[in-house]
Amino acid sequence: MRKLLINGILVDRTSEFHLQNVSILIEDDKIVDVGHGLNDDGLEVVNLDGQYVSAGWIDMHVHCFNGAWSEGIDPDRVGYESGVTMLIDAGTSGADTVEKFMKEVSTKVTKVKALLNISKQGLLTLHELRNIEDIDVELAIQQAKKYPEFIVGFKLRASASVMGEDMKTPFIRAKEIQKIVDKPLMVHVGNRPPTLDEVLNSLDRGDIVTHCFNGKDNGLLVDGSIRKSALQARERGVIFDVGHGSASFNTEVANSSKELGFIADTISTDIYLKNVNGPVYSLAHCMSKMMEIGYGLEDTIMMVTRNVADAVKLDGYGSIRPGFVADLTIFKEAKLDSEILDSDGNIIQLHQQLIPSAVVIDGTWRETTYGENEHIY
After folding, report:
1. How many Å apart are CA 141 and CA 56, to the nearest integer?
2. Measuring CA to CA, which residue among 264, 255, 294 is closest to residue 60?
3. Which of 138, 207, 209, 144 is nearest to 173 (CA)?
4. pTM for the full model?
5. Which of 165 and 83 is assigned the larger pLDDT?
6. How far apart are CA 204 and CA 239, in angstroms?
7. Phi/psi of residue 334, each to 5°?
8. Distances (CA, A) of 193 to 216, 240, 355
9. pLDDT tens for each residue of 297-312
10. Cys-Cys with 208: which of 11, 49, 173, 186 at CB 3.0–4.6 Å?
């Protein structure tokens, strides 16, 4: 089926039509053409009424597998209903449970993929790496090869409460998996041990450190400067992800880091049932927080589209161009004053908010439930 979206302001720095009023021609699940004055003869026409349109937003750190963890949230609630076309579950499933997860999300509107927990049980216990035997390298490799479209990388939670006394072997085994399956490793950082220096020094180009702006004493800043290991990791090509979560985003750290010239590469929520009603709320809220800190609209959109697609090697996603998958987010920027919290209880004064009104997923138009009178705080 052919559909033409007209009168939308394109936000896609990779496009020659960036920040221009464009038409987007879609056929079935692909973008066919982008430009000005495209022929609309015989087509279903959707007028975007001057709203912004970008590639579909991707949240690459969520927990939406309720079958493994009771806090897992419904994918559509934090997906298309909130303007997000794809979710990447970060380690809720492991090699033993990923097939159950795939079945659970197969009927959802929102696209879902997984960063496979290197523990075969996933988040069933919340201390999944204490028994090293639960890191089954061969089984993880087997599942990643069997489901290459669904499993886009791996997840390791690097904290003593998760890992117990042996904090080296999980990294060693994760790297063994990566030698065979060339996909990124996302590492959660929090309270020491291990130290952030130890974590960062274990990561290679393309690996992802999430919770990069947490307010813990094991964080990014040391005596008012960016710690040396973080600068070295960035130089190597390690990706820094926001990963807001219940306890992992401190606005003062994020603001100071930006002033020092150190900005995140990607924005994600680490959203689940416990934090969806605060302090996380939605990906749009996390994006609005970053904009309040001083991240521009163009940068913010890149951080949930192109940058994520590159990070987890999603071919055909992250940009609006002919041949790419027809996943889009339609949104506006509203001047709305409100107070909202970061993960440490600090008040953020929002003066503007991004409000998604609709998405297109595989060429199909769907209204969000986000609206100006819903989910706005």
Report:
1. 29
2. 264
3. 138
4. 0.97
5. 83
6. 9
7. -110, 145
8. 12, 20, 39
9. 999 999 999 999 999 9
10. 186
